[in-house]
């Protein structure tokens, strides 16, 4: 939890603790990638009201960059496969 302290992740659920930890570990080269659940129509902007399925069509991604990890921020209250 200490790794994410002070990290402000816009459009993340609660304080973005899980996203912050994933970002910290990726940036510190502690991991090569992080498995995240992104929205099918995610444009990485975090804006609501876009077209497509949004949170109701989650897709697993292997995030290797900060931008890819940020695609997984926020809650997706739907069933999502972690692996395909």
Describe the protein.
The chain has 84 residues and is of the alpha+beta class. 19% of the residues lie in helices and 14% in strands. It has a two-stranded antiparallel sheet with strand order 1-2. The relative contact order is 0.23.
Radius of gyration, in angstroms, nearest whole number = 12 Å
Mean pLDDT: 74
Large-scale geometry: globular
How many extended strands?
Answer: 2
Strand order of the largest sheet: 1-2
Largest sheet: 2 strands, antiparallel
H/E element sequence: HEEH
Structural class label: alpha+beta
Instruction: Assess the beta-strand content as a share of residues.
Output: 5-15%
State the separation between the terminal residues, measured CA to CA.
29 Å
Per DSSP, the total helix count is: 2
List key phrases describing it.
84 residues; two-stranded antiparallel sheet; 19% helix; 14% strand
Describe the structure concisely.
This protein has 84 residues and is an alpha+beta fold. The chain contains two helices and two strands.
Produce the secondary structure layout.
Blueprint: H1 17-27, E1 34-39, E2 58-63, H2 66-70
Antiparallel strand pairs: 1-2
């Amino acid at each position: 939890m200490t790794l994410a302290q002070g990290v402000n992740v816009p459009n993340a659920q609660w304080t973005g603790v899980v996203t912050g930890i994933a970002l910290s570990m990726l940036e510190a080269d502690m991991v090569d990638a992080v498995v995240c659940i992104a929205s099918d129509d995610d444009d990485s902007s975090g804006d609501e009201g876009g077209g497509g399925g949004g949170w109701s069509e989650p897709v697993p991604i292997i995030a290797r960059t900060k931008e890819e990890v940020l695609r997984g921020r926020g809650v997706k209250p739907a069933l999502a496969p972690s692996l395909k």
